[in-house]
Amino acid sequence: MNPGHRRGWAMGGGGEGRRARHSPLTSSLLEPALLILLKEQPRHGYTLLANLEAWGIRTIHPSIVYRTLREMEALQWIESDWETAQTQGPPRRTYHLTVQGEEALRNWQQELAKVRSLISQLLELL
Amino acid sequence: MNPGHRRGWAMGGGGEGRRARHSPLTSSLLEPALLILLKEQPRHGYTLLANLEAWGIRTIHPSIVYRTLREMEALQWIESDWETAQTQGPPRRTYHLTVQGEEALRNWQQELAKVRSLISQLLELL
DNA sequence: ATTGACTATTGACAAATAGAGAATAGATAG
DNA sequence: CTATCTATTCTCTATTTGTCAATAGTCAAT
């Protein structure tokens, strides 16, 4: 009855006590958003989390961000080292973009541009 | 090694003999795209398939489109009747938007606008 | 009548992805 | 010494996606 995830987001007149959810589109932007942030400078997961929030992406669960980072590392788009310096907490993993990550980002860039123009087309029809 | 689906789309320097794939973003646009087409006028799946192709969304498998339509019908965003008139093939199911579908579409409209501006922000950082 | 091409939709299965929550753990302020 | 903030990982389950095959009507040519 109450679809948990992507399909049927944009529900109408639904329950009152439901937490804010993000649309499928938002989660699709996570990967390029992280790459872009890491292109600017190396960062660690906790910071990236805050950066995403600052962009209004506050609905994505931390574990999903961390997982996505590990997956992108498996793809060799990013690499990480444990930060040796004193932190304000446990040791943290600093990610930075690789050459392959830069290429992936270029592909993402093209895709983002395409999608943006498709969205514009769609919105014009309304 | 070769991720089959969403994660790791935007692979760099990969295999030659690989079919074109769409990014996760593209599939996220399927739902609103269908709603928009159906708002304009009732259509059946096969036509919608062609409409999507005309928009450059040529990588989405027909069965996914049909499935999405059935799912949106389950959500009561759209309704369908079997077309009685003679067709150039087997009977076809004509979908039309419901009142709830119109509301879902309004929500989608806002989301599309938000996402478009987020994409613009992202692209500016590159 | 049979074949092939195009129209049209559905079903089932495997694989991938997402969501939530708990677990772990260091640092710091009170 | 404990509560809170920082920081990351793991596991379980639910949902979504991708793919392929199956079904089936129409039409044209043979």
H-E order of chain A: HHEHHEEH
Strand composition percent of chain A: 5-15%
The coarse silhouette of chain A is globular
SS summary, helix count of chain A: 5
> What is the CATH class designation of chain A?
Mainly Alpha
Indicate the percent of residues in helices of chain A.
40-55%
Oligomeric form: homodimer
What's the average pLDDT of chain A? 89
Q: Would you identify the CATH architecture of chain A?
A: Orthogonal Bundle
From the N-terminal CA to the C-terminal CA of chain A, the straight-line distance is 28 Å
| Cα-based radius of gyration of chain A, to the nearest Å | 17 Å
CATH superfamily of chain A: Winged helix-like DNA-binding domain superfamily/Winged helix DNA-binding domain
Describe this structure in words.
Two copies of one chain form a homodimer. The first copy, chain A, is mainly α. The first copy, chain A, has one domain (23-125): Arc Repressor Mutant, subunit A (Orthogonal Bundle). The first copy, chain A, is 52% helix and 10% strand. Chain A contains five helices and three strands; from the N terminus they run H-H-E-H-H-E-E-H. In chain A, helix 2 crosses helix 5 (99-124) and helix 3 (45-54) packs across helix 4. The longest helix of chain A has 26 residues, at 99-124. The first copy, chain A, is globular and about 55 Å long. Residues 13-18 of chain A have low confidence and may be disordered. Chains A and B meet through helix 1, helix 2, helix 4 and helix 5 of A and helix 1, helix 2, helix 4 and helix 5 of B. The structure holds a DNA duplex (30 and 30 nucleotides).
